[in-house]
Structure formats: structure tokens, C-alpha cells
Automatic annotation (TrEMBL):
Keywords: Cell shape, Cell wall biogenesis/degradation, Isomerase, Peptidoglycan synthesis
Described function: Provides the (R)-glutamate required for cell wall biosynthesis.
Gene3D superfamilies: 3.40.50.1860
Catalytic reaction(s) noted: L-glutamate = D-glutamate
Record GO biological process: cell wall organization; peptidoglycan biosynthetic process; regulation of cell shape
Protein's recorded name: Glutamate racemase
Its EC number(s): 5.1.1.3
Annotated catalytic residues: C82 (proton donor/acceptor), C196 (proton donor/acceptor)
EC category name: isomerase
Positions that bind substrate: D19, S20, Y51, G52, N83, T84, T197, H198
InterPro entries recorded: Asp/Glu/hydantoin_racemase, Asp/Glu_race, Asp/Glu_racemase_AS_1, Asp/Glu_racemase_AS_2, Glu_race
Pathway: Cell wall biogenesis; peptidoglycan biosynthesis
Amino acid sequence: MQSLGSHFSSDPRPIGVFDSGIGGLTVLRALIRAMPGERFIYLGDTARVPYGTKSADTVRAYSLGLAHILMQYDVKMIVIACNTASVHAAGVIAEFVSPVPVISMVPTAAAAAIKTTKNKRILVMGTQSTIRSGAYAETLKMLDPSLQVTSVAAQLLVALAEEGWIGGPIARAAVDRYIGGFFDGDDRPDTIILGCTHFPLLRDVIADVAGPGVALIDCGDAASAGIAGRMSGKPEIKFLVTDAIERFTSAGERFLGIPATNIPAEHIDLTEILNTGLRKAS
């Protein structure tokens, strides 16, 4: 994948990042780690979360509205930090915001998984909508037809991550129920794509259930690796949400790994986002 870092590292405009809620903060965390001197604007659609159970048309409309808001902040790039939105809306967003580049989760994570796997067996974990779309399997097979790809919808893990139940017997039982059976035999996958931005919080449990020798692909790490420019300094971050500011800041501390007092979110009018998204999607 072409590196964008050398071109954008000298551009002082912010990078726009959006998600259906708080899961995309794991992507933002990876971006900050890769580019600590950058400016970021994070927009979480906390009023309409989750996207993973909604129709493709609805996700496209919602996502276009979020992209419209970010463009008002003169962003130099948009990162779709939501796998469901990446699956259903990346193309229309790229057309809408052109020539501003758009980074989405599926192609970057798929490329990282192909580079990582040794036995060409890959397991994709995601939300219902992401898995139902078949986007990961299609992308992986397009890049390497010899791959054996298995996909599993693990919707309950989203709720566990948001509630902070990321360890202990309940989390382990849920993960084992979803993927345990894939790692019993000799034909076990050696690579797992965490195809939902909530899942990195359950990384330790997923790794324990999968067993030794299995690599986990974090979408945020894969996306940030494609933006190679690195700047020193302290990041400047603006947080925007469509609802539930207190819940966002509380959960954000867990997802982003910084104190809640450092996550001063601002409320964005949902009416403008909805009207813009529906108009652009029609």
C-alpha cells in the first residue's frame, strides 16, 4: 500500500476519524502512537450506535453525514475507524470527499493478515453486518485465492467491551463459544483479523482461546502502518459526539488509555448529520 505519511506530515490540517461510537478510539490510539505530533478530530456517533446490526443503506446514510461534518473542519484525510462503515460506505465517502484521501479498515487489515499468515488459514471476527457483507473474505481471496478464510459474527463481544467485561470467565466463555471450535484440530488458522474496533480490548482473551502461534491483526495498527509519516511532539485531539458525552468519556478512558479528564467531548447536532447523510445517499 502506498505510504501517505511523507506527503501529509508537513500539512498542519487535522486528520478526521469517525466511528459509530467509541470502538474507533482503538484506531485513534494506534494513529496517535504512529503519529504523536499530529492533530486529530474524532467524531463518534454515540446516538445511533451500534452500526453492526443496521442495514447497508442506513450505514451509508449515517456515514456520509459524519464525513460531511468532518469536512467542515478542513481535514486532510478521513479514517473510517469502523469496520461496518468501511464495508458499506468507504466507496461513497471516497467519492463524496475527493480529493481528500480515505483510509478504511478492510483493505489495510486484509493486507496485514496476508503478510502475516504462514499456513494461509485466516479467521475473521466481526459484527453481524461486517461478516454478512462478506467484504473481508472477498478482499482476502481477491488478494490471494489460495487462502482458506473462515468468518464468524461475534456481536456479543461489542457489548462486553463497552461494559468493560474484557477479562474473566464471562468474556472467556463468550470468546470460546465463538471461536474455540476453530482451534481444536491441525487445520487451525494461524491468523485472526479483529474485524471490529471493539475487539482489541478483548485481545488477551482471544489470544488465550486461540492458543500459541496465532497472530492477531488489529485494524488500528494496520491502518496506521499505511500512514508512514511520523512527527514528534504531543498530539492535539478534538472529540465530537452525537449523544451521551459522559458515557463516551468514561468508556473512552478504557478504549483510548488516557484519563477521562483528557477526553473533553463536544456535542454535535444529529439533525444536521442525518439530513446531510440522507441527501447524499439518495
